[in-house]
Amino acid sequence: MGDPSNSFPRLVSLAAHDLRTPLATIHGFAQTLVRMGDLGEPKQRYMEIIDTAALQLAELLDELGVAARIEGGRYEPALQPTDTLELARGAAEHLGEERVVVTGEGAQVAVDVDAVQRGISALAQAALRHGGLEQVELRVDGATLSISPVTPSSGPVVLGEELRDLGAAVAVIVIRALRGSVSVDGDTLSVKLPQ
Predict the structure, then answer these.
(1) Exposed site from 11, 51, 125, 187, fewest CB < 10 Å?
(2) Residue 152, preceding bond cis, omega within 30 degrees?
(3) Burial class (CB in 10 A: 0-12, 13-18, 19+), 35
(4) CA 46, 37, 92, 161: dihedral to nearest 10 degrees?
(5) Is residue 90's pLDDT more than 80?
(6) What is the rounded CA–CA span in Å between residue 175 and residue 163?
């Protein structure tokens, strides 16, 4: 028998992996129908919604899989050198520049670029969503990325202390697994990445 404490993370990881196949089928057929473009309204719009939802579900499964690997002690990050300003711009692009304003100057860090960029984006989205905000600033100061404002109600969510946002909770787990830190001081969330 395997280690029972390690079986749940493995089960979650397996589920996240196995769910990708039917999800890829849904996404593939939805994309095909959207590209055909002759469905007429409202069918065309419904297919676009299905396609977008399939992509969002795939991202959630990726996050769940990463968290399960970390919790199960099987996370092997693909560390790559990158500039924190580029990380911030990539994270902001995912949410829209009108919602996340990037400022500051970056520095070189070695991180799992996709996981950290997805995590920074999730933290900004959690600050927006759970803070009832329309815009946040993502300030880059060397290896530290700061998101503000963070409201009193969104603070525990972005720290992963109040589990109401999977993306934010996984982001905190990933950043800490990479020997970084996540903290809130006043109305600012600070993510310090290892250099």
Answers:
(1) 11
(2) no
(3) exposed
(4) 20
(5) yes
(6) 17
* Residue carrying the six token digits 């129908």: 33
Q: Give buried/exposed letters for 36-73 (b at 16+ CB in 10 A, else e).
A: eeeeeeeeeeebeebbeebeeebbbbbbbbbbbbbbbe
The answer for residues whose C-beta is within 8 angstroms of residue 156's C-beta and 6 or more apart is: 162
Cα distances (angstroms) measured from residue 181 to each of 77, 78, 95, 175, 176: 16, 19, 23, 6, 6
Q: What's the rounded Cα separation, in Å, for the pair 108 and 83? A: 5
> Which distant-in-sequence residues (6+ apart) come within 8 Å of 84 by Cβ?
106, 107, 109, 140, 142, 143, 144, 145, 193
136-142 and 100-106 as β-strands: parallel, antiparallel, unpaired? parallel
Span 61-83, pLDDT tens digits: 888 888 888 888 888 999 999 99
What is the SS3 string spanning 83-118?
Answer: EHHHHHHHHHHHHCCCCEEEEEEECEEEEEHHHHHH
Burial of 133 (0-12, 13-18, 19+ CB in 10 A): middle
- The identity of residue 135, as a single letter, is Q
For residues 72 and 7, the answer to whether their CB atoms sit within 8 Å is no
Report which of residues 40 and 90 the model is more confident about.
90
